């Protein structure tokens, strides 16, 4: 599994529209409207680097209203949710 975070600058009057469009793209698990230097943050989870490249350059950056982006590829994911899921499988047999 390849996880990435995409930080985006978006035209102010298109933030909601862009966020809703991105949220419908397969591989985009969440889209956040944020305060600070960026307007939107998308969390991507795909199987391969090739899928990531196709998603970011082939689909996301063609969405009207995104003026700039920065993609952060994760090495490892640390999540309480992942740990809870692993331990909720039940006792070992």
Give an overview of the whole structure.
It is a single chain. By secondary structure, the chain is α+β, with helices and mostly antiparallel strands. It has a single domain (about 1-85), classed as Alpha-Beta Plaits. It has three helices and four strands; from the N terminus they run E-H-E-E-H-E-H. The protein has helices spanning about 15-25, 50-60, 80-85, and strands at about 1-10, 30-35, 40-45, 65-75. Strands 2-3-1-4 form a four-stranded antiparallel β-sheet. It is globular and about 35 Å long. The model has no long low-confidence stretch (mean pLDDT about 90).
| CATH topology type | Alpha-Beta Plaits
Rg over CA atoms, rounded to whole Å, is 15 Å
Helix content: 25-40%
CATH architecture, by name, is: 2-Layer Sandwich
How would the global form be characterised? Answer: globular
In DSSP terms, counting alpha (H) and pi (I) runs of 4 or more, how many helices? 3
Give, in spatial order, the strands making up the sheet with the most strands: 2-3-1-4
Task: Determine the mean pLDDT.
Answer: 89
The largest sheet, given as strand count, sense and whether it forms a barrel, is:
4 strands, antiparallel
Task: Compose a concise summary of this entry.
The chain is an alpha+beta fold.
Provide keyphrases for this structure.
93 residues; alpha+beta; Alpha-Beta Plaits; four-stranded antiparallel sheet; 3 helices; 4 strands; globular
């Amino acid at each position: 599994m390849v996880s990435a975070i995409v930080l985006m600058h978006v035209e102010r009057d298109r933030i909601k529209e862009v966020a809703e469009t991105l949220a419908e793209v397969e591989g985009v698990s969440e889209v956040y409207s944020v305060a600070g230097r960026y307007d939107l943050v998308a969390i991507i989870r795909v199987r391969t680097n090739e899928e990531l490249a196709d998603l970011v350059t082939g689909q996301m950056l063609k969405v009207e209203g995104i003026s700039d982006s920065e993609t952060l590829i994760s090495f490892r994911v640390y999540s309480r949710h992942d740990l809870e899921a692993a331990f909720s499988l039940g006792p070992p047999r």
